[in-house]
UniProtKB/TrEMBL annotation:
Belongs to the uricase family. The gene is pucL. This is Uricase. It comes from the Bacteria. It is an enzyme of class 1 (oxidoreductase).
């Protein structure tokens, strides 16, 4: 029986970087969490500890900082593509790179009715994300967002489900529907205005969530993905993960009050987790860009 090394990668995880552009008195900031992973001819380092093809993870970290200084970061997809192509083109024995970036949003603090030139506030935990895979001379971009918390105070029902002796959940035709959206979408090209596309896709998903009279969170998931694909031909597929942030009606009968879907208890766990992919049937299947490791 032979034993061999399987799919593998290595890199530097969660390089936190804040870059301030001071070209004008009105500063801009980019607040990122960057992770890099490299793949290639790495058998020797696993089998014998030969590091000749093993670019140090510390060098990868330093490259992130240096690239942020040498040129404006721009859109996170563009920054990730530059980093990935650099590692593949310059690192001995490396044939593939994967760069993951989370971007934290900051808003200008309003002063005198206008945003301040160099003072900012974080008003949300939402993050913009990208996962760029460079494989030789090919590149794939998967962008998205996470921790986008949304809520509908009505326009949501849940009934008609199977029931057995363990079922205690009551059917309802009026409930709060809330979730923290994690979405990823695969682009068909790397030659795009990524910032414009991101803002439009985000707005499309929010509108779909708001306007869909939902009989199940699964239905909302499908509508969110479908409407993105209908409006954005540059997107091949959308993957969504939607935890159901349950809001349970409080029984106020103990004090002779009628609760007409107005007072709820917000439970953080356990929670339903609804996940799915909405895709075009006329495009190639997802490449390695979706995966942390090369496919088996």
């Amino acid at each position: 029986m032979g034993i061999a090394m399987g799919p593998n990668q290595y890199g530097k995880a969660e390089v936190r970087i804040v870059s301030v552009n001071k070209d004008t008195p009105r500063h801009t900031i980019k607040d990122l969490n960057v992770s890099t992973s490299l793949r290639g001819d790495l058998d020797a380092v696993h089998y014998t500890g030969d590091n000749s093809n093993c670019l140090p993870t510390d060098t990868q970290k330093n490259t992130v900082y240096a690239f942020a200084k040498e040129a404006p970061i721009g859109e996170i997809e563009e920054f990730a593509l530059r980093l990935g192509r650099h590692f593949v083109d310059t690192a001995h024995g490396i044939t593939g790179a994967r760069v993951l970036i989370d971007e934290y949003s900051w808003e200008r603090i309003p002063v005198g009715g206008a945003g301040h030139d160099h003072s900012f506030a974080r008003s949300t935990d939402e993050k913009r994300t990208t996962a760029v895979t460079v494989d030789g001379d090919r590149a794939h971009v998967v962008s998205g967002l996470k921790d986008l918390i949304v809520l509908k105070s009505t326009g949501s029902e849940f009934w008609g489900y199977p029931k057995d002796k363990y079922t205690t959940l009551a059917e309802t035709n009026d409930r709060i529907l809330a979730t923290a959206v994690t979405a990823r979408w695969r682009y068909l090209s790397t030659d795009l205005d990524f910032g414009k596309s991101f803002e439009s896709i985000r707005a499309t998903m929010l509108e779909a969530f708001a306007t869909t009279h939902s009989l199940a969170l699964q239905q909302s998931l499908y509508e969110m993905g479908k409407q993105v694909l209908e409006a954005h031909p540059e997107v091949a597929e959308v993957r969504l993960s939607l935890p159901n942030k349950h809001h349970f009606l409080v029984d106020l009968s103990y004090c002779d009050l009628e609760n007409n879907n107005e007072v709820f208890f917000a439970a953080d766990r356990p929670y339903g987790l609804i996940e799915g992919t909405v895709l075009r049937d006329d495009v190639d299947p997802a490449p390695q860009a979706w995966y942390s490791l090369p496919e088996f």
